[in-house]
Write a structure and sequence with these properties.
Elements (H helix, E strand, L loop, with lengths): L1 H7 L4 E4 L2 H9 L5 E3 L6 H4 L10 H4 L5 E6 L3 E2 L2 E2 L2 H8 L7 E6 L6 H10 L7 E4 L7 H6 L3 E4 L5 H6 L3 H7 L5 E4 L2 H4 L9 E3 L4 H13 L3 H10 L5 H13 L7 E3 L1
Parallel strand pairs: 1-2, 1-11, 3-6, 3-8, 6-7, 8-9, 9-10
Antiparallel strand pairs: 4-5
Helix pairs in contact: 5-11
Length: about 260
Amino acid sequence: SKFLLGVLKRADGLVVVNNQLSAIYKEKGIDNVLAAHDGVKMSTFLIDDNSSFNTPELDKFSNKVVFSYIGRFVTMGEEKGIEDIIKSIQYIDNQDIYFAFIGGPMDCVPQYLKLSESLNIEKERLIFIDRQPISDLKFYMQKSKALLMPFPYTDHYAYYMSPLKMFEYMTSGVPIIASSLPSIREVLIDMDNAILCEPDNPLDLANKVQYVLDNDCTLIAKKALVDVQEYTWEKRAQNIKGFIQSTHNEQNVCVE
């Protein structure tokens, strides 16, 4: 808004969560902008040799090849890709592949089951699990064949976000399949540290699922684990601190 721009132009610096927002604000005449992506606390998601975890929910992964989506099913009423995942299943020939959705809210599940029924997809292939403690998510990630993040193309997802899910996924050592959106491509590179698919394209998503089934993606997953070391909360804080110290007046730096 014009009001917000007027306020921000009086600040000595502005911190935003990605390069897309940085470019937008610079076009509006705000020059001193730092793009500081969101991050992750590595220790929360790394599994050591002494880690053990088992619940009835995790048992649902046993002896199955599971592709997982982890995170809230919807945000502010907006879909985050689960419908596209379900639609993609119709294009996958292998009937022994399962898809897990972890994060809730569970009142969304009936509409997803209705969608799967309309596509003649067996509901047994869909595993819905409510929100889990963040410390437990690493075990679901490790049990997954790949982690799914097929955000649809909207202005918010394409230009304004820096999803925590992305950095958490990167710690897992498991391949990531994600939408090829400008905000995502700032961190994930196709066939380097992730497998990228076209947004809003269930067929292409299915092709990328098949790619993971047919190919060894170990190096891609390992590259993501290396790259995420640059996106810890500690490094983000250091970058912002350095940015503040480089300005003339520390009192007027706005963090979005």
